Structure formats: C-alpha cells, structure tokens
Amino acid sequence: MAGEQQHAHETVAPQAGHEQQTCPACGLRVDTVVRRRKSLGVFIPVWSRGPCRNPDCTDYVERQGR
C-alpha cells in the first residue's frame, strides 16, 4: 500500500517479560528475539533465542553494522 513503512522482521527484546534465554554452547545469557509469523491474516509474535555474543563461544555471531 502507498505510504506504508517497512519494518524489520526481527526485534531484540531483552526485557519483554519472558524468561531470559541462554546459549546452548556456553550457557551465557543471550538476547530474546521477537520474530513474527502470519496466521489467518494476523501477525503472531514468536519469541526465540538470539545469537551468542561471547567471542570465546563456538556459536559466536559477530554484530553486523547498521
């Protein structure tokens, strides 16, 4: 539609009222990431574990510049 803004489909929500997620490899806390999926025409939030930021971890993901 005309005039609609594009939004990122992934949002970091560290204090969203959900249990804090941990990295399965190193056990340190990671951000909680909110993604969305569409069900019956409505967007439903899906809370999941974000990437690990510990440089010593095997699952480490480097931050990307904006």
From TrEMBL:
| Listed Basic and acidic residues bias regions | 1-10
Question: What name does the UniProt record give this protein?
Answer: Small CPxCG-related zinc finger protein
Source species, domain of life: Bacteria
> Taxonomically, what lineage is the organism?
Bacteria, Bacillati, Actinomycetota, Actinomycetes, Kitasatosporales
The organism of origin for this protein: Streptomyces amritsarensis
Tell me the segments the record calls region Disordered: 1-21
